[in-house]
Description:
- The chain has three helices and ten strands.
- By secondary structure, the chain is of the alpha+beta class.
- The strands form two sheets. Strands 1, 2, 3, 4, 7 and 8 form a six-stranded antiparallel beta sheet that branches.
- Helix 1 packs across helix 3 (138-151).
- The chain is globular.
- It starts with 28 loop residues before the first helix and ends with a strand.
Amino acid sequence: MCYRNGYGCCSCDSCENRNKKEVRFGMTEKDLGNAIHVLETLAEFLGIPEEEGEGNEIPPLMIAVRPGEAMQIITEEEAAQFLPGFGEEDVIAEAPDLDLVMSYNKDLIFTVEDRKYLDGPALFYAVDDEGDIVPLTVSDLFHVKEMLKRRTVLVKEEGMEMPVISLD
């Protein structure tokens, strides 16, 4: 059983406050460890070399999401398969609550009571000053996941509930 004595929490394994120590990027040690593990697994899967060097350029990665589904990590080359019209007909806007760019199909936006919602795929990625896509950070992955938790809502349409991403 956990107790608080005014100086912190006990050391029991069931304490919800245990391991909540914030370290870097607004993440707990556990969250940071999980994110690093995901990135290492992803790098191995994509064949990305462990060290940078000549001929070892790391390809920029993007976060691909569909409302209500788990996010995916894709390369820029796969973007057009995930989001038809990427780079040509898509909307590119600042992602809500993030320091990233978001691309989506403008035809999949709808408004309810002056609030905009996205009912379709979106890509989140980082860009430099020239607008070129640059590699994501561990922090970016974590913050997109947290933003999606806050902004994915259920909207009723014709008696059915569907997940959408709130853009306002």
